[in-house]
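re the bet — no i am not wrong, look at it urself. input seq straight from the record:
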Amino acid sequence: MIYEDKAKYSAILENSISYLQNRGFENIKADLKGYETPKSYSKSGSDITITPDIVAEKEGRKHYFDLSLKSEKPKLLKSKWLFLNTLSTLKSSRFRLITARGHYAFTKEMLEAINLNNKTLIKI
């Protein structure tokens, strides 16, 4: 999710964190009060900063998670997903998308638009 939607969807972010804890993920960092903030990445020559929604570890491997929720700025969301997908590939980690009921069709359309059809969604 993008920064503007953070306050609007904080309950879904909390549910996602508890879901991941129940699945055995450890050392969870989230862009939420009460958790350590994940590392942010800045685009050089611009004021755009990308922060993954959740970063966690399982079995020694780092996983990046992003919430896929309807947004007013889908272009910015697509850019964030492409960056996180590339970053996870370079660092031999995993990138997964978490979505909630009512956002499945939006997420599928976005993934098809940026050619990430092979991503499996975590549905909460």
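see?? The chain has a mean pLDDT of 90. told u. also DSSP finds three helices and seven strands in the chain. so pay up
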